[in-house]
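Hey, resending since the last one bounced:
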Amino acid sequence: MSKAPRNARSFETIDIADLRRLADIARERIERAFIAHPAKRALYDGHLLAICLCQGAADHFLAPAASDGVQDFDMWAFFRPRPGARLWNRKPFTADFGPSRFGRSPLDPPKYTGRRVDVLWRDIPCETGVMEAVAAYFSDPQTESARALRKKAAVVAWPSETAGLVIWRPAIR
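The structure tokens again:
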């Protein structure tokens, strides 16, 4: 859990409409990144597999009464890899959820009118179905990112017809 105080967290429930809005925000942020990096667009356009709500917000989606609330929304986009190409990984791109019942964190800069949305991405092997490939990223972590992510839940936000599908839930200890 982050060390954000209780007053910096939202305890409002997250619903399917919120997941779809978060997916739209993530897709728009990815689009802006591809506009800035057209060579990457040429490699990865059409290779988006899924976008998932991850970490504390995903835990909150699944069990709001048992969660520590939502400091921010962590959205992870998973792409099918391209042979000979590397999807650039960098610090998270951020976006603003905007005014909503989730409020805003007083820890965020004033430019955010609502909860901050962090958008990250990875390319992952996809030799089976899309959801199986994303689930495998969590169940058989090969990277530091995957090992960290698997400590919390992951819920599909896009494709929209699968919004709310639990792709990963850590074992209860």
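Helices lie at 16-36, 38-44, 55-62, 130-139, 144-149.

Sorry for the duplicate.
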